[in-house]
Amino acid sequence: MAEAAAKRKTLLEEFMAGCKKGFYIGVENIMPAMVLAYALILFLNLTGLMDLIATAVAPVMALFGLPGGAIVALISAFFAKAAGAATAASLYAEGIINAAQATILFPATITMGTLVGHFARCVLTSGANPKHHALLLAIPIIDALLSMIIVRVILNLMGISC
Amino acid sequence: MAEKDVATTVDEKDYEHHLTWRGWLSFIVIALSFSGVLKDMGPLSAFDFTVLVGKFGKISDTFTFIGKGGIGASEGFMFALTLMPTVILALGFVRAVESQGALLAAERVIRPFLRPLMGLPGYVGLALISSFTTTDVGAVITRDLVEEGKITDDERTIFVAYQYAASGTLANTINCGAPLMPISLLSFGIIFMVEIIVKIIGANIVRFYLMFRRKKAGGAA
User: Is the pLDDT of residue B2 over 60?
Assistant: First the structure.
């Protein structure tokens, strides 16, 4: 056994190990996020909260070619990347956003996702100068807003209006 | 909500430590496969990632097995099931090419651009490449680089600004972004590039802010 472990894995074994990891990520990370996101959107729709939130933020979101309801995906992303992307997918399924708008949200949910969790794991772990912590915290959000503008421009260049 | 992202921790891997032709080949194959450029190229489309993921069969010619009109947690569960093939295949590929040294090839490509793009020395190349697939490794290497005196405190701040946004970019775009992959109008490769571009812009915001501060401090002294 020990001998086998010491030997380098073959390409096929590496591939299979990666696939296996993909399966567990699906079960352990993606599925809980999807169940949460879909249940949350249903809750917001049934209670009418979705309309309230959407109306309130509509003018700001319009700058990025998004309807007000899309803010829910960005709020979810703040807590976890997976939740943000899953929420965007369920907004698409509900017909609140279209495919182009889901595409605009895609890099944004990843870029600003898990803001607090990764602050600890990236910024604190690297020992970055505390003087600049506030600036560093703002950077992923700025990046996310930029990514939405860039994707919108790309889609417009491809002749997709959004 | 879970604050832990996937694939951002390291498991023991015994990968290629020297860049060989296999590293270059695997790097080129994965870059082409994820970019989507081969999608419509006849037999070459066999190398395209989304083509290889394929699609589910239809039930009575209309719907896939998740059906139509599902809502709430049940629909979320079913949708998650449809994403499994993508994630499983993607991680299999990534791990296979990683084991061949594809990341070392990527580092070789990126190294010369570090100084002009972000004002960072070549030392950070490895940490930068690690940050494609993990959050923690890049951060730990960054701390070590400062402690060894290879990069300055300001360079660390710039580099962390790059790493922090969309950290573990490749892994997290595949894993966390899986629900959006079938919906997205742009290929995975383009979404990934957009993320890298805004990460570099973010790092430059910090770079010029620090430069401005230094100039101001220098002028006052």
Answer: no
